Queue: 2 jobs
Job 1
Amino acid sequence: MRPILTAFAQSPDRGRGLARDMSVRWALEEVGQPYDVRLLTFAEMKEPEHLALQPFGQIPTYQEGDLLLFESGAIVLHIAQTHEGLLPGDPSARARTIGWIFAALNTIEPPILDREAAGHAERGEPWHEARGPLLERRIESRLAPLSGRLGDADWLDGPFSAADLMMVTVLRRLGGSGLLDGYPNLAAYVARGEARPAFQRAFEAQYAVFLAALRA
Ligand code: GTB
């Protein structure tokens, strides 16, 4: 059964692969699962038809027969649990890998999102400039231990897994910020993830949507 993913018809990231359909596309490419994509405008995302699939009116959603999922982390975990290749077979290694998926979304990503949100929503506030270094220090306080734990390893815990897919996805949001410059092993880790053929295929697919929207 070919799953159906929803994604932005016109992503505000301008084809950089930062919207949250990217991790799902990447996971599907890693496991070799063909999929279809239904593109939505912002207005369509807020209509009852989509709200029935995603209560917050967001992308991505994932439909596979009778199964309907939202939340990119849950979708990636589902794909990893139902296909070979993204989760280790050993129960302890599998549990640790799932722990790292949560770490990516629940420990590393929140301060990154706070800084992004401040950049969008608080730019006009008198305290905006003063708050910047604080937001960056909070990110650094997560990057430093992550960098220490990764060390010289290629991936977080053994072979490439859904945890790396999710962690690289989260760290990519720092692209252009300079915040990874002090952590060469994390910058190399992101580059290793981006060099994977499955990442490249996922990236090209979402970039094609961006190009098509430009031409329309
Ligand atoms: N926790 C949910 C998940 O992981 O699935 C969050 C989903 C989410 O934030 N979706 C966003 C959305 O639908 C798109 S990806 N937003 C519309 C809305 O909330 O009304 C987030 C995103 C948007 C834009 C960029 N960008 O421009 O770089 C990056 C990421």
Note: The beta strands are 4-8, 36-40, 61-64, 67-70.
Job 2
Amino acid sequence: MALPSINPTSTAAWKKLEKHFKAVKSLEMKKLFAQDKDRANQMTINWEDFYVDYSKNRITSETFKLLLELAEETKLKEAIQAQFSGDIINKTEGREVLHTALRAKVTDAIMVDGKNVMPEVFQVKQKIETFSNQIISGNLKGFTGKAFTDVVNIGIGGSDLGPAMVVDTLQYYKNHLKTHFVSNIDGDHVNQVLKTLDPETTLFVIVSKTFTTQETLSNANTIKSWFLKHANQKDIAKHFVAVSTNIEKVKAFGIDQHNIFPMWNWVGGRFSLWSAVGLTISLSVGYKNFQSLLEGANKMDTHFKTVDFDQNIPVILALLSIWYNNFFKAESEAVIPYTQYMTQFATYLQQGIMESNGKNIDRNGHPVSYQTGTLIWGEPGTNSQHAFFQLIHQGTKLIPADFIGFAQSLHGNQDHQDKLMSNFFAQTEALLNGKTKAEVITELEQQSLSAEKIKTLTPYKVFEGNKPTNTIFIKKLTPESLGKLIAMYEHKIFVQGIIWNIYSYDQFGVELGKQLANKILKEFDNQTFANHDASTLNLLEFYKKNR
Ligand code: F6P
């Protein structure tokens, strides 16, 4: 089945939402809480080890009902069905979108071109397990007979961000292997990493779905040359493995057939950490933990596929995001994890969200007349409280935020955990309630300030409040809960793409810059630059003089 192609603004629900928005846009959430004592309970979903509270949003029960109608009218149910059953929903690239198959059960039959892909998926998983076990245990050794101490993941975009984020987030569960990530074409990146490495004990994992990406191939070649200064050609087989769909190109690079971990075209780069792209994750935290990550994601898939929309976590989060993006005209969203382990989470989500839904042509081939993809950004709390929270609290922009917190810390320092969590709760409470003029005056009076001083200071100390947040509260940061969380955002992306009537799984927008960079690179050879605008030409000349 092809995806539905309904312009969301043409639906009855959208028109009703526009009218409804005018009536509710100024409603204060704190009044809604006062009017309905059951609001917090009604707007909370308790699922597995997740407690998702979306009550601190600028919505009424009518808003919620209309948003659900929008999902129905844009045929979200049919679209979910089409995705999970392997229809070619990535139409512009002619591909299925089946990252969910990578975490499905061995007994599930998932068909691509009339063939069940699950046996192949499990074959590769088996290979990942065996290889990880051999490297971690030290049974597989480097060219001088020493066990491996370091693993370097060479990849970019989806072939870097997912594994890098998961390895960093799960570092509590890590084994002795030191992991490194080389992604940027910037030679300083690769050289800085190489500086710390011993060729005798380092394993290189080249990850590239296409095996044509300039950054990855340049870095891989630089690393190969460095390695060959210390070893012989035949030693490459012991130190280099690759993850790719492009087996021929991998072999041409000089990698042993046995060292290739295949992936498939039906896995999009930014959704690929569940495939062999996650090999570095498995090497870093062990296959069992990698498998738990996949199981967590699979549980979220089942929730997303089977639960009614009014209780469906990714669907609700997506609808709320649309409410702010398209009606309040909010341009960005923040994601604030209250754990230092999730420092890379927002960066990871940026590719998933912005590469998927940063589109301006709809599924009928027409320019959209409404806003699509949101900007996403964030940093862990409490650090971010001392960085950009000022703007969220008192700036002029509306920034809906997801607060992600964990009830238990991993190292078990209860004193720190209580302090961390008191901030977690306080921030969403402050964003909701703000601080009124009367409250500010009372507070300043208690400080025995002069009437004049109080008058001057008061406006600066008022907090409007009424800033929307979702609280995604999870028992503990484990491989499984992380798998659920990542899959939750993947499905949120999908739902938004369906409702906005865009194709979420292509990324043609990254091509133009690549083409021009290739043209400029060729021009460096003969040092003559042609067919550039005046600004670019000046910049190129400046580079020529100073390089
Ligand atoms: O940035 C564009 C992109 O195609 C991403 O979608 C992808 O994750 C990345 O480049 C890397 O591609 P590859 O895995 O083929 O090297």
Note: The chain has a mean pLDDT of 97.
